[in-house]
Amino acid sequence: MEFDELQQIWDTQNNKPLFAINERALHNRILSKMRKARHITNTSELLLIIVNLGVGCFILGVNLYKQHSSMFLYGMAAWMFATFLYSLVSRIRRIKGDRRFDRSMHGDLNHAISVATYQVRLSQAMRWNILPIGILSLLSIWESGKSVWIGGAILILFALAFYGGLWENNIYKARKRELETLKEKLETKD
Fold first, then answer.
1. Distances from the Cα of 87 to the Cαs of 11, 44, 60, 116, in angstroms?
2. What are the pLDDT digits (tens) for 42-74?
3. What are the DSSP calls for 27-61, one per residue?
4. Domain locations in the chain?
5. In this structure, what are the phi and psi dihedrals at residue 125, rounded to the nearest 5 degrees?
6. 109-141, pLDDT tens digit by residue?
């Protein structure tokens, strides 16, 4: 956290400059970070809910009407429905938990840290969610007797998605650490 809003105060007893924090500007910055984290979290949750429900229904529908259905595709549809339910329940719990924070600067900072922690966990869970989906995809390709090149391309795609999930997760961890550092600095100030 940059303390751009430091104000210089002159200590008349020691003739030395002192610094104080502009608390209103700091509180506005905390609120801004909290709004940004909530926006990202809401978007992530809604995407997870819509995509997993939609793709799960699509895979199930296609597999039901195929002449030779795949057990692995049924498994993938079930996994996506489970991920949909997990995302939905997690969202409901997070929204209910938002009410426990007071509207002070410390309360808003704790709320921002809570949202950032939730975002890190959600991102990490969805990153690891790539593995079962990738495995089920590869098994369904193998079961249907498709070309090895298709399986290799899908494997590369899932590896890139897994790496992208790591990159995204590290961004969320850095934002969370920034908020925790600010909290530590404010607690030592008090």
1. 54, 10, 19, 16
2. 999 999 999 999 999 999 999 888 878 889 999
3. HHHHHHHHHHHHHHHHHHHHHHHHHHHHHHHHHHH
4. 24-189
5. -65, -40
6. 888 899 999 999 999 999 999 999 999 988 988
Would you mind telling me the total number of residues written for the chain in this entry? 190
Contact between 152 and 134 under an 8 Å Cβ cutoff? The reply is no
Asked if 179 and 105 touch (Cβ cutoff 8 Å), the reply is no
Cα 145 from Cα 128, distance rounded (Å): 27
Residue 144 has pLDDT above 90, yes or no: no
Encoded tokens for 24: 């209103």
Structure tokens of 105?
Answer: 């600067």
Residues paired with 8 in a beta bridge: 19
What contacts 22, CB < 8 A, 6 or more positions away? Answer: 5, 6, 7
- At 1, is the secondary structure helix, strand, or coil? coil
Neighbours of 174 (CB within 10 A): 11
pTM of the model: 0.78
Query: Can you spell out the DSSP letters for 104-133?
Result: SHHHHHHHHHHHHHHHHHHHHHHHHHHHHH
The contacts of residue 38 (CB under 8 Å, 6+ apart) are 115
> What is the identity of the amino acid at 20?
A
CA angle 174, 177, 181 (to 5 degrees): 140
Reported as a pLDDT band with limits 50, 70 and 90, residue 8 is: very low
